[in-house]
Amino acid sequence: MTTAQTINSDGNGITDETGETADLFATGAGHVNPAGAMDPSLVYDIQFEDYVWYLCGLGYSDEENLQTAFMSVDCNQFGRIELEQLNYPSIAVTLSYAITREVIKRTVTNVRPEPTSYTAEVSLTAQSGVTVSVSPSTLDFDTMGETKSFEVTFTVEASTIVEPGDAFQGSLKWVSTTQSPVVVVASPLRLVFA
Question: Where in the sequence is the domain holding 179, given as residue range(s)?
Fold first, then answer.
């Protein structure tokens, strides 16, 4: 996901079935880039337990966890994580007029052998009324396999007027080459980032 290309072979944005520029709901992270996947720079590692915590957070019953994860899990003892907090390259959060701020934590692992520094660049549909900040905005790695965590804070301004179905899209890109798709959708009660 982090190395996918968001442009086509002509150097233009990926188009949908109508010939218009496709949104992230149609393209996902973009076209697979096999060469880029060989050197992703940063990876979002997920362990098996993370998925089980995620299933518990989704409200799966112990029986559903047994069928899905092939293990018996008591979520009350095992633990839960919310959908937004799964350590995944894309980011999904929900905001509403009552909840105008959400903080998402991610952890990345450096897979480059040399010391590398990455700076966060955020783009989001202009005039969305949603601000996105990353802390720390720079990640410095000294060795391969080193991990760093960062937080992404989404804030919707009180004066923002949205209609159900509105979507604000963009990305969080770790310069040098790593990016995460970001989408904001408005529902009658909530704004949704994905």
Answer: 87-194
